Amino acid sequence: MRFLAAALLLAAAQLPAQDRVASLLEELANAPGPPGFEEPVRQIMVREMKPLSASLTYDGLGSIIATQGSQGPRIMVDAHMDELGGVVRRIAPNGFVTMQMLGGWLDQALVDQRWIILGSKGPVRAVTGIRDIHVVPPDERTRVYPRDTLMLDIGASSAAQAAALGLEPGDPVVPDAPFAILNGTSNYLGKAWDDRIGCAALLEAMRRLASAPHANQLFFAITTQEEIGLRGAHTASQIVKPDLGIALEAGVTGDGPGARPEESQVRLGAGPGLFLYDASALPNRKLVAFVKSTAAAHSIPLQFDLVTGYGDDSAEIQKSNGGVPTVNLVVPVRYTHAHNGIVNRSDFDRMVDLLTALLASLDEPTVRRIRDFTP
Fold first, then answer.
1. I need a labelling partner for 223 at 20 to 30 A (CA). Which of 9, 140, 155, 277 fits?
2. Domain limits of the chain?
3. Of the listed 83, 226, 227, 249, which one is catalytic?
């Protein structure tokens, strides 16, 4: 008993007191919000954005569009609120539940995981079970189980019991992976950093710019359904009609186990990142140069990356309003598109510094120069 008490005191001493930003990150990461079911995240963002906005509206897919400033270039800052998840497809007679995945999941990330189904009577806990080692033949022990063979076990023994819990086809499913500060470090563990980390960075830049001068019309867009086709960014940019766009996203680190150098060069804790290429978009070269010079002027470390299997909202912003200069800025995340990702607090803070500096530095001549393609 004495040992247990000492261990608990030691653990408590290793946990730093959470500040406002850490509490915000925890709330956003824990909130459920797969594509098309973003309401819990929307409520948090509206609560935080409304006091900082001159106006706040929505597009037809539920994206939030908040404004600051009434004259100057129309600058769109984007982050998406949805996360990877699923929806209930079918309830089997034995009470097990099948799931349609939403977003880019790896099949090996789905087995033996905890989930929460958002049913009509409240959350229902579930697990995607795994076959027992005692019965699996040797030739199956290294096999990846296809997603269509997995079922959610909710503890029910019949379809009627599942229905009594308030479940039906179409109910959203999210990972069950609570936020935690990792062992007294500045690394934060949680789900949905893609892209709640971008949502939080956008919000903190809004907070700073609410009382700081700038020469732009700023449109802060928190978009929906990015994980299933960049849909909210498409509709939001149709409304905003931006002159220039900045997307905030979760990056992909190359410093984890098994990573290869050509996959990613970004490291956790080495500063915010700038995408020079992804499968969906090429950034505007003049805007890239502007980001680099702004980061250097404010002594903000900046990482660069090119990832082939990646897409982001800047692709839709780029194609709107006759063509828009865009760039994708990222907070590095280790283990994206899985239940448990890790972000570094310094990377996040420096991203807020960078975004605030960019928005404060942009003005009509700068945007005109970036948009000028005259030979």
1. 277
2. 16-83+191-371, 85-175
3. 226
Compute the half-sphere exposure of residue 314: CA atoms within 13 Å on the CB side of its CA. Answer: 30
φ/ψ of residue 266, rounded to 5: -80, 140
Whether omega before 195 lies within 30 degrees of 0, making that bond cis, reads yes
Amino acid at 312: D
168 included as an active-site residue: no
Q: Which CATH superfamily is domain 85-175 in?
A: Peptidase M42, domain 2 (2.40.30.40)
CB atoms within 10 A of CB 126: 24
Nearest to 249 by CA among 219, 280, 218: 280
* SS3 category, 241: coil
Q: Which two tokens stand for residue 241?
A: 């009609």
- Residue 283 to residues 33, 73, 155, 250, 313, Cα–Cα distance (Å): 28, 19, 49, 16, 12
Tallying the residues shown for the chain, one arrives at 375
pTM equals 0.92
Q: Which helix (H) or strand (E) holds 58?
A: strand 55-58
Multiple choice CATH, 16-83+191-371, 3.40.630.10, 3.30.930.10, 3.30.360.10, 3.30.450.40:
3.40.630.10
- What averages of pLDDT result for each successive group of 10 residues across the chain (375 residues)? 38 57 98 97 98 97 97 98 97 96 94 96 94 85 85 96 97 98 96 98 97 94 97 98 98 88 90 95 97 98 91 96 98 96 98 98 98 96
Query: Is the separation of the CB atoms in 270 and 303 below 8 Å?
Result: yes
Q: What are phi and psi of 97, to 5 degrees?
A: -125, 135
